[in-house]
């Protein structure tokens, strides 16, 4: 495609780089930019997240989801993170205002409405998500 993103060498501005922590493998470090960029594109670039919006992130404890929670908080959104029981404490610790354990509660039937829903796991029908959206809400997957 001509962009060279997977080239052996690349030239970038120095301020676009960060040192890899010694405790992290090169393989682990290589995954971070991809997950972060996906979260940023979905929240900021595609859907113009705004302060005060109620944002639900389905899959908040995964790679893209953890970045999405933090990015949404940076943009001053009220964040609800959805994931399994074992990930809820971590999702809270990275900034989620509310957490939902999908093994215990179906957020699409709770009556709560969200301005933006980001789904990074895609295991529901779009019609299920519609029930949880505010009248002008946006669904991103």
UniProtKB/TrEMBL annotation:
Residues spanning the membrane: none
Protein name: Alcohol dehydrogenase-like C-terminal domain-containing protein
Record-linked Gene3D superfamilies: Medium-chain alcohol dehydrogenases, catalytic domain, NAD(P)-binding Rossmann-like Domain
CDD domains: MDR1
Organism: marine sediment metagenome
Any GO MF annotation of the entry: oxidoreductase activity
InterPro entries: ADH-like_C, GroES-like_sf, NAD(P)-bd_dom_sf, Quin_OxRdtase/zeta-crystal_CS, YIM1/Zinc_Alcohol_DH_Fams
Domain Alcohol dehydrogenase-like C-terminal as annotated: residue spans: 63-140
């Amino acid at each position: 495609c001509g962009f060279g993103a997977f080239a052996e060498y690349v030239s970038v501005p120095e301020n676009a780089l960060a040192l890899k922590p010694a405790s992290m493998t090169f393989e682990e470090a290589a995954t971070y930019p991809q997950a972060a960029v996906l979260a940023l594109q979905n929240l900021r670039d595609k859907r113009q997240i705004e302060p005060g919006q109620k944002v639900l992130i389905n899959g908040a404890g995964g790679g893209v989801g953890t970045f999405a929670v933090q990015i949404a908080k940076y943009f001053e959104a009220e964040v609800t993170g959805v994931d399994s029981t074992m990930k809820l404490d971590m999702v809270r610790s990275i900034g989620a205002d509310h957490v939902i354990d999908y093994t215990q509660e179906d957020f699409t039937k709770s009556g709560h409405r969200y301005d933006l829903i980001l789904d990074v796991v895609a295991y529901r029908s779009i019609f299920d998500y519609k029930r949880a959206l505010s009248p002008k809400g946006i669904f991103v997957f």
